[in-house]
Amino acid sequence: MLHLKLPASWHSVLAEELDKPYFRQLEDFLIEERQTQTIYPPETDVFSAFELTSYDKVRVLLLGQDPYHDRNQAHGLCFSVKPGIKLPRSLGNIYKELKDDIGLEIPESGYLVNWAKQGILMLNAVLTVRSHEANSHKNKGWEIFTDAVISKVNDKSHPVIFVLWGGYAQKKLKLIDTTKHAVIQSAHPSPLSARNGFFGSKPFSAINSALLKHNQPEIDWKIRE
Question: Which residues are annotated as active site (predicted)?
């Protein structure tokens, strides 16, 4: 049996999605996968982003694509890894840009929970993956669900900052009312593309400037375990 449970603040806005046929099929697929495969993140962490950032507290939405697929890395927040785990290269590039942008020394930990607790919904488009098989849960239903999440955040009355790194994330622009919300976009921080426009894009200061413009407190970008 699957034990995926959305926190109450999100359940109230996404209840319709959970009853749709595609989500039931997704749940059936995940039950079968977990019986025969190693799946990341652990079932208890699949909805971590929603647990750490309630719907009413979302101020920034940072969109990733697929969870990390090596052992003990993924824990339900895009780009983040568990304490004590070596930094993935994309996250290392995010930290390089963080230092160049606002002068924050590169931390050893890749555990980004402190960001989520301040109102950054750290959402992957696909929320599960097979061990060592990138994109193995692509097109199984998660994208329909997370598009609905993006649409619900777009429906919020106050301006939200959407951070879209790379072509995959930027395809979601069609779900966002850019007359109401701010969008920060650049190349992806992956080693394959970071030098094509991620480095030098200064997203962290841009996010804080946008928050201040809307009379909201800045994000404290320091990493705290």
Answer: 66 (proton acceptor)
